Input
Amino acid sequence: MSIYKTAVKKPITTLMAFIAVLVFGAYSLINLPIDLYPDIEFPAITVITSYRGAGAADIETNISKPIESSLNAIDNLKEISSESRDNLSIVSLEFEYEADLSEAANDIRDALSLLENIMPEEAENPMILKISSSMVPIYMYAITAKESYEGIEQTLEEYIINPLNRIEGIGSISVFGAPIRQVGVEIDPRKLEAYNLTVEQIGGIIRAENLNMPTGNLRMGLMDYPLRVEGEFSSSDIIEDIVLGSFNGQAIYLKDVATVRDSIKEMTMDERINGELGVRLIITKQSGANTVKVAREISKEMDKLMANLPYDIEIQTIMDTSSFIKSSVNNLTKTLLFALFFVTLVVLFFLGRWRATLIILLAIPISLIVSFIYLYVSGNSINIISLSALSIAIGMVVDDAIVVLENISKHIDRGASPREAAIYATNEVWLAVIVTTMTIVAVFLPMTLVGGMTGVMFRQLGWIVSITVTTSTITAITLTPMLSSKLLRLRSKEKKSRYEKSIVPLFDRLDNGYGRLLAWSIRHKLIISVLALLVFVGSIALVSKLGTEFMPESDESCFSIAIELQSGTRVEKTIELARDIDAYLEGIEEVELIATSAGSDDTGGLLSIFQSSGSNIINYRVSLSALDQRLRSVWDIAEEVRLHLDNYPEIAKYNLSTGSNMMMTSSVDVEIFGYDIDQTTKLANEIAEKMKLIEGARNVEISREKAKPELRAELDRQKMAAVGLNTAMVSTALYNRVAGMTATRYREEGNEYDVIIRFSEEFRNSITDIENISLQTASGSMVKLGEVGKVAEYWSPPNIEHKRLERVVKVSATPFKVSLGEMALNIQQVIDDTEIPKGIIIEVGGAFQDQQEGFKDIALLMLLSLVLVYIVMASQFESLKMPFIIMFSIPFAFSGAILALLITDTTLSMVAALGAVMLIGIVVKNAIVLVDYINLMRDRGHSLNEAIVLSGKSRLRPVLMTALTTILAMLPLALSTGEGSEVWSPMGISVIGGLIFSTMVTMIIVPVMYRIFAATGERDKKKSIHDKFVFMDN
Amino acid sequence: MKAVLIIHNQAQAERIEYMLDRLNIRGYSKWENVLGKGSETGDPRLGTHTWPEMNSSVLSVVQDEQVSDLLESVKKLNAINEEVGIRAFVWEVLETV
Output
C-alpha cells in the first residue's frame, strides 16, 4: 500500500506520527543554544616561545626560524606565519577547515620535542595555544570606584568574582587594570653612599627582618612547647624603623636613607571608564556553553551582587555579546513571523478558502520544526544562518502542499468523496511533487559540500533548506491528503461566495490577458528572442558597476580604536592624550560608554596576544546607543572620529575598527616579501603613502612597527676586569636600582604584597643618573658605572614577521563606502605603478583573497547545481532537450538579481552571490511546471500553439502563487534594518529581484523557446509510429 | 443470470461498494486498476503522466430481475457528474458451476 493511502486510511496514526515529530522538535527547540554564527572554530594554533633578553632579530634566527621549518610539514597546514619581537616569538599556524586540531597539536608537540636540543638553553619551552571562539570575552564590565579604588581587586574578588564563578558555563573571570598594592622603599643614592651601604645590603637586611621561624621544642614539666620567632612585619610602618647598621656610633634607620611608601605600584597602565578611574572585568565562557544563557545568568547574578558592594563602586556593561545575538535572533524571528503572515495572505488570496489555507499552512511549522531536530541532533545552534535559512525555506515548503491540495479539491468538486479524492488525487501528482523537490535539493545539497570559511557558513543553509523541503514533500503526500479527506467539503455550485464573485473574475481577466500576450509572443519569436538577448547582455554588462565584498559588515553599535603614539613615548604623555580624546568622544551624541586603557600592563599576559599594548598605546572600546535610537550608522560616526584623530600630530598611527568579530576582517592586505628590512620598510612606507590617497581607503597600516629608541649600557670588559666586576654583576646591580629589587613580601590578611627597593624616581631618569650609579666591586670599594662603561641611545630593530617562512611586511587598508573589490583593484594599480626592487615579491591578500576564494567556491557550486538540476530534469522529462528550454529562465534570474542589487545599491557579497545560486532551483521549478503542462497538453492532442497558450493560461496562477510565496517570504528578510540585518538582507534582495524578473520573463521566454526548439522531434511520436506502419495503408 | 461489468473512475469505488450493498448484491469480482478509453466521451484513463486517472472495474453476476435496478443506479451515479465517468455492460451467463 502506498504511503498516501495508508495516511488517509489511518488518520489517527498519521496525526500521531506528526505530533511525535512536533514534540521532539519542540524539545530540540527548547534545548538548542542560541548563538550568532554556527560554531566556527577558527583552525589555528599558535606557538609562543619567550626568550628573555633577546632582541627581535635574535628571536627570529634562534627561535622563530627553527620552529617554522620544523612545523612546516605538518598535515593539513594551510599557512604558517610568525612574528618575532623582543623577548617573544609567536608562530601562527593556520589549518584547513577539516583538520582535527587536537591531532595537529600533537603533531606540533612531537615536532617541537625534536627541536629541544637546537633551541637556546635560556629560551623557555614553547607554549602551544589553540585559539578558540571560547577565548573571546562574552561579557565585559567597566567598574569605577572612588574611595574604594585602591583595594578594588580584593573587593571584587570577594563580592563578584567568587560568586560569579559558580555559574555553570563560565570559563574565566579576570580583572584588568586593577591597582596593585606594594611597599616601595625609595632610596636616595647620595645618602646611601654617605653611609657606605648598597641596595643589596638593604634588601638583605629587610629580608632578614621579615621572618617567622620555628626554632625547636621546649619541654617544661609535663608540657612540650614549640618555640618560634615571630619577626614578620605586623604593619608596613615598621619597615622604615629597621636599623641598617651604625655609623659613628649612631644607629642608621631605613628612613634615614629612603622613604617607605605603602601604596599603589607605579602604574604603567591607565584604565578609565568614561574618563573615570576604573577596572575592567572580563568574562569568557567555556567552549560549547550557550552564550545567551550564560550571559543571562551573569547579568541576573550581577544585579544581586551589586547590592553588596561599597556605595561608590559602579558597574557598567561595556560589552555583552549576548545582547547583539539576542536582538539579531529576535529580529530574525520577527522576520520569520512576517514571512509566515505573507505566505498565509498569498495562499488565502489565491485559494479563497479557509480550510484549504489552513491545511497548506500546517506544512510550514512541521517542516521548520524538523530542521530544529536536525540542528539539535547535529549539535548546532540557533543562529543567524540557521534562522535566515528557515525564512528562505518558508516560502518554498508550501508549494508541494498547494499542488496536492489543488488536485484533491478538483476531484472533490467533481463529486468524489473527500476520502477517495485524497487518495486518487495524490496518486496522480505525487511523483511530480517529488521531482520538483529534487530540483531544489539538487541546488541546496551541494552547498553542504563547500569547504573553507564559506562552507562553514553555508553548510547549515544547505542542510536546512534540503531538510525542510524534503519534509514538506513528505507532509504534502501524507498529512495534506489526510487532512483534506477530513476537512474539505464539496462546495455547492449555485451559491457563489464573495471571493468567487470579486476575486475570481480578476484572475480570469489576468489569465486571458496573459493568454493573448503569449499568443502574440509565439507569433513574433524573433523579436522576443532578440529582446531577451539584449536584456540579458545588458544586465551582464552592468555587473562591472556592482561593487564586490566578501561579507557585509554589520553595525554592532560599537567600535574600537587602537592609537599608537611615537614609540617610546612615556605613559604619562599617552594618558594625557587619552584624557583629551576621552573628552572629545564624550561629546559625540551617540556615544554611551567609553572604556580607555592607556599604557601597558605587564600582567596582561594572554590578552596581549589579541591587543597590542605598550607605554605608547591607547586602546578604546566605545559603545553606541541602540540602532533604532540613532540616525547615523557606526561607519559615519567612525569616519567623524577618524577625521578628528587626524588632527593630532602626536599620533603615529591608529586603527579604528567597527566590528567586534575578530575573524571577519574586511581589509585588503598588501604583502611585501623580502629579506632586507630597510628596503622592505621603505617600500611599505611608499605604498602606504600612495594607498592613503586612494578614495575610500581607511586604516592604512603597516604591520612592521617603527624602530624603537632604547638605551644600552655598554660595558668595557677591560675596565670591569681591572676592578673585579663582570657583566652579570653589573646588570644585576642596574636591575636592582632601576627596575627594583623585590626584597621580601609583606603579609596582611592572607594577601602578600611585594616590598620593592630601588632608587627614587629623581635619581633614575637621565643617562647621567644611570652613569652615576655606584657599583660595589669584589674588594668592597665603589666604582661608578660611568667608569666601566657608558650608556648610549640606540634604535632597536622592529618586530619581524614571517609568512610561509619568508620575511614579510603587510600594508593593510579597510574600505569605507567603497567596495572591497574596487579598492583592491585600485591598490593593485598602485602596486603596478610602484617600482619594485629586485628580490621583492608583492602579493595582495587579506579579506580580498578570501573573497576571491569564496567567489570561486560559489562559481563551482553554481556549476555543480546546474549540472545536478539538468540531471534531475532530463530524467524527469526523459529528454535531453527539455531541460535546456527550462534552463533558459536561469540567466534572467541572474539579470534580475543584478538589477535588484544595483537599484538598492547593494554590493555583490558572498551572501548575495549565494542568493543567485539559490535562484537556480527556485526559478527552474516555475519553468518545470509550465513546460510539463505544455507537454501534457500536446500529448492530449492539442496543437503546438494551442497547447502553449492553454498551458500558459492554466499555469499562470500556480506559478504566480509559488513565486509570490517565495518573494513575500523573503521580503521581510530583504527589508530588515535591525541588528545584524546587513549580513542577510543582500540574499533577500538578490532572490527577490531574480525571482520577480525571471518569473515575468519565464512566462514569455520559456514558451517561445519551446515553440522554437520543440516544434518538431520527439513530440511528433505519432508521425514516427505512422512511418513504421505504412504497410497498413498499402 | 446475467453478468454486469461496471467500469468506473477509481474515485467512485466506495460508492459502488455501497450501491451493490444496498441492492443486496453480494458477489462480485473487482479489478482495482483498469486502463482504457471511452468510445465517445470522457478523458482517457491511462494512468500515464498525460492521463493520470485510472478506472476500476466490478464484474458481478446477478439475477435477471436485479439488472434493471443496478443499471438505474449506475445511471443516477453517472448523472451526478458525467466527467467522472461510469459505464455498465450486461451479458447473458450461460452456465455456472
Q: What stands out?
A: The two ends of chain B are 12 Å apart (CA to CA). The mean pLDDT of chain B is 89. The longest helix of chain B spans residues 64-80.
